[in-house]
Amino acid sequence: MTKYLLTRLRQSLITLFLVSVVVFAGIRALPGDPALALAGEERSPAALAAVRQSYGLNDNIVVQYGRYIGHALTGDLGTSSRTGLPVADAICAALPVTLELSALALLLAVVVGIGAGVVAAVRRGKPAEWFANAIALLGLSIPTFWLGMVLVLGFAIALPVFAASGYVSFGTDPLDNLRRMVLPAIVLGSGLAAVVMRQTRAAMLDSLSADYVRTARAKGLSRREVIGGHALRNSLVTVVTVLGLQLGHLISGAVVTEQIFVLPGFGKLTIDAVFTRDYATLQGVVLCTSAAYILINLLVDVLYSVIDPRIRLGGAK
Amino acid sequence: MTDTRPVRDGGTLTVALNADPDKLDPSLAQTLVGRTVFSSMCEKLYDIDQRGTVVPQLASALPEVSKDGLTVTVQVRPGLKFSDGTHLDAPAVVTSLLRHRDLPGSARATELAPLKSVAATGPYTVELKLKQPYTPLTGVLADRSGMVMSPAALKKYGKNFTNHPSCVGPFKFVERVGGDRIVLEKDPEYYDADQVHLDKVVYKPIPDGSIRLANLRSGDIQVGDQMAPVDVRSSLTESKLQLFNSPSLGYQGIGLNVGNVNGTGEKPGKIDSPLARDVRVREAFELSIDRDLLNKVVFQGMYEPACGPISPESAIAPGVPAAQCPKRDVAKAERLLKEAGVKTPVRIEFKVSTSPESSRVGQVVQAMAKEAGFDVVLRPMEYATLLEETDAGHYDAFTSGWSGRLDPDGNIASFLKTQGAMNAYGLSDPKIDQLIADGRTAADPAQRTKIYGELSQRVADAHALIYLYRQKNYIVATKSVSGIKVYGDGLVRVKTAGYTR
């Protein structure tokens, strides 16, 4: 197990390094001069030159990369060319927002998706399955932006139960936090819930017709034990794999959701950075997101063995 | 526009901006939304009033200009304190003006370039020496160049002043969370604190207009800045909301490449395209466009058609009213193209930004120009890329706009002077250059009006920048708030704002 972890960790670090190179080069390949993006409508040549100078944009790209990585290793991700605020601060401020949003969306997707998937499989051919399938189809088809606006119109304006925008940390005011996070979590989680539901349903149908389930039934186990203890547990391996793969979508989906609900998370930070050619912020955000993504993949792999001990990790006997 | 219903003390006002401001440093700041935030925390030597006239703010009177126009004396109001508690005096004004002029990367450097030296000649008297007479100076000092920063804070924070701005204003800086909010609170040291009712003002960037509107409806924000006509229309049906508007001093139009071969600000050259070669082709293109129709179709008739660099609302040398703009004349356009001997349809690549409004302007222009013999090909591009392409001279036509300045010079000089810093058109006309210089040095308002009238005509005849319309500043606020002021510079002033009793 330790050896496996170390190998995976080394692979992860190499991936992260490659990501940093690609991001660094990629951002610079974008058309649009950052100095111009920054200057906007007022752009005197002297001011533009000073901006390029102060952000080291005149240097060779390799020199720029070396300087960047050198600073990044010490935890200094540079300062935003637009606001002058340290990028690390911006990321630290945005991180909890996106993490909370993703966690809530994930929770929603898992609870609703697995629940509906099990019901649909167990109640095969009954109205419950038809209903669950219809809802899942809706969840997959409705565009995030539209669903967001409809929920705001319905539950923040017509029936003011939730807030239309903004973020208050859970620590400051838990109730207000939830009031602001429920709608975004629904918007972000709906698509994932639908995917989870479909996967759970399919896996459960497989499991329910498998020999071990028939044996369990023959042994006289209760319906709950058969479904929960045997069929569902085996189905979860597929579901966890899908969840792991979908987490990337969750993070990218957060970009749109955060725009709709004006949540100061990673997605919003990224979009703003792209449009203002704020290299430092963009690099910091992509690097952190990649690190998180790599870490999640690692965790998913480890989780496999916990859920199903039959899956052996490389090197283990 | 103002709203004068009585208000109570206390409360937090949340203002939604259409973009996240850039640096909160008056020397480096470059965005319009940033000016709105400054209006609450950084007062200027001069300001404008409801009618667009310059009035003293931190100065105690309008500047005195010597007969030769080379010495300007500014009297500063005594007894003012910065938000960090230190005193504002003449040396502080000197420090700020020199920083605005000399700081590397200063966005104020160009407009303060005519400033030779600044000195404090008394505790509250500042003397400015100029290289040449420069009438736009008062207008310039009524904008960010006139903001006075606390020398103590400048010394303490240096480059990091942007994260700890300290000026004189009704509110003082508390915190900024990038992309999320800028929080200001009432400054008890402020000289006019009796007029200030709110405890806090929070500025939130919400770029999407429909989301700004949804938040106004839900009550999460109280003021929505720079609302688009389509959102204004739908907000009018809402009984809880009120609308403020002011005409803008800026303009929007189409820039044509008539000589930009080496990049903006560089020496213009010859371009071998029908548009650049022959002014008659450019005139025909302009004549193919119906400004009124464009305004109706794209902006629901809520903006103002325009055909010159100076707004008719400008207090200094007003420009041409919309009614006097040339009308669409397809027959004449076709005749001109024939005279010019060009092969029709004349192909024009028109670079537009990716905003929905810009794209629709492009489509309407495309349809109208087609009838006169032009084949307009639209090239939508994201704003930063558009700037790079047009500054480099890689274009035939592009959407060119400017948010506007108080003094006409600020809307003309950089754009139309030969090798001007923002002359992306490559326009070069000695007569225009001369008129710009004359307008800067003339002190008599009547004479300036005459000069700028002549200049506008000359610019119109060059057809290098086709002025199309002026945006209006639409601000939507909830009715529970009063005391908001919106003037011609488009800034939302919340100094006297508060919740109604």
Describe the structure.
The complex is a heterodimer of chains A (317) and B (501). Helix content of chain A is 77%, strand content 0%. Chain A has helices at residues 2-29, 34-39, 45-54, 61-73, 87-122, 127-141, 144-158, 174-208, 211-218, 223-260, 266-275, 279-307. In chain A, helix 1 packs antiparallel against helix 12, helix 6 (127-141) packs across helix 8 (174-208) and helix 10 (223-260) runs antiparallel to helix 12 (279-307). The longest helix of chain A has 38 residues, at 223-260. The N and C termini of chain A lie close together (9 Å). By secondary structure, chain B is α+β, with helices and mostly antiparallel strands. Chain B contains 15 helices and 26 strands. The mean pLDDT of chain B is 93. Classes of the chains: A mainly alpha (317), B alpha+beta (501). At the A-B interface, helix 2, helix 3, helix 5, helix 7 and helix 11 of A face helix 5 and helix 12 of B.
Separate helix tally of chain B: 15
- Strand pairing plus helix content of chain B: what structural class? alpha+beta
- What's the overall average pLDDT of chain B, rounded? 93
User: Percentage of helical residues of chain A?
Assistant: over 70%
Give the overall pLDDT of chain A as a whole number: 84
Please tally the helical runs of chain A, counting DSSP H or I stretches of 4 or more residues. Answer: 12
Provide the β-strand percentage band of chain B: 15-25%
Major sheet characteristics of chain A: none
